[in-house]
Amino acid sequence: MLRKSKGSILVTTVIIFSIVIILAMTSIGVSYNNLSIFNLDYKDETLKQHSYGAMEVVHSNILREVNLIKEYAIDEDDFYTSFSGLSFINNIKDISKCKIKNVIVSIPSRISINREEKSVDFEILITIKDGNYIKKLKSKVKILNPFNEDLSIDDKTDIVKLYNYKEI
Q: Which residue spans traverse the membrane (predicted)?
């Protein structure tokens, strides 16, 4: 009787160990996948925060340039002409003072001067690369003309407006 049971105990033990090994391998695979998903989410969130940070740096550059233009512009036409040069574009795209790396700031469409609404409109595209990961953030900018007499007091103090943020 002992001889018959030794074979069945061995088979049962092998089956149990096989099940335990399969469960262990499955749980290792699941934890590895969860870790990969977490790392992707973390990388996405990090790139998103860096792109918003770069957008804030560009926004402060725009504010600085617009304040300089307001200070030196004589009239409405002089204000609009200041935006047509490359120096304005290069100055707002310069984010070399911040520590965010692998950032490309571009203006995908040309700067449009809207004399009916008395504003200057353009778009900003921030592209951040980290290895194989790329994050893009697009925003529209509207700069109100400070020489417009129809502006409210709030608009005169805050003439640069960033709106319509989109992650691409």
A: 7-32
Q: How many domains does the chain have?
A: 1
For residue 140, how many C-alpha atoms fall within 13 Å in the half-sphere facing its CB? 7
Task: Give the H/E segment covering residue 122.
Answer: strand 119-130
**Domain enclosing residue 147, as ranges:** 2-167
Measured distance between the N- and C-terminal CA atoms of the chain, rounded to whole angstroms: 73
Tokens of 95: 């984010």
Helix (H, G, I), strand (E, B) or coil at 154: helix
**DSSP string for residues in 127-143:** EEEETTEEEEEEEEEEE
Q: Whole-model pTM?
A: 0.78
- CA–CA separation, 147 vs 49, rounded Å? 36
pLDDT tens digits for range 43-68: 999 999 999 999 999 999 999 999 99
Write down the pLDDT at residue 5.
63
- As to burial, measured by CB atoms within 10 angstroms (0-12 exposed, 13-18 middle, 19+ buried), residue 79 is buried
* pLDDT tens track for 65-122: 999 998 888 888 888 888 887 888 999 998 888 888 899 999 988 889 988 888 999 9
For 95-108, b/e burial (b = at least 16 CB within 10 A) is beeeeeeebebebe
